[in-house]
Amino acid sequence: MPLTEVSVDDLATAWQTLPGGLLDHMRSVSRLAGELGERWLPDAREAELAGFLHDVARAQTPARLLALAAELGVAIDPVGQEAPILLHGPVGCLQALQLHPWVTPAMAEAIRWHSTGHWGMGMLEKCVFLADKLEPGKSGHYKGLDDLTALAFTDINAAILRYLEWLVNHLMERGQLVHTATIDARNWLLLEQQGKAP
Fold first, then answer.
1. Domain regions of the chain by residue span
2. Which fold, 3-193?
3. CA distance 32 to 48
4. How confident is the model over 147-195, as pLDDT tens digits?
5. Which one of 104, 141, 158, 179 is separated from 133 by 20 to 30 angstroms, measured CA to CA?
6. In terms of Cα–Cα distance, which of 19, 180, 3 is closest to 106?
7. What predicted TM-score, i.e. pTM, was given to this entire model?
């Protein structure tokens, strides 16, 4: 089936065995990613579809995520080993590619990196990354970031940078691990904001 003929309803049917609350979140992220895509991309369709697919592996247990990552050849770094939930992006990316051959490389990367971000994020990745954090079901989850959705539509890089800095501080205050990809994303966006990104 060509990408142009795929709908979010088709995807919801394909993944209907996922928990209802998770499917609601995926639909909500899809909507917001599509809206951000309309603002920042020539065509919002990939953002909408990748926004739905971003969490296809989210319902897996930590042990199952580690097993699936090993089966699918996903590199498991020390942070992923300790916090397997971070593997649901890379695992879900490969599962989406297996089931949906129309998933483009850009969509696959958006699914892969939606939890951590990474150095050199493309605009599609940025739309899905922020939509996952800002969808209405997560309202109030990130204290002090209530105006971030509005900022995402005026300066998406500033919105992501602000979220990442909040996240790093939040994790450090709790003595939790911070993935190196998240630090890379923050540093790259800061350099890009300063006009120094390579």
1. 3-193
2. Hypothetical protein af1432 (1.10.3210)
3. 8
4. 899 999 999 999 999 999 999 999 999 999 999 999 999 999 999 888 8
5. 104
6. 3
7. 0.95
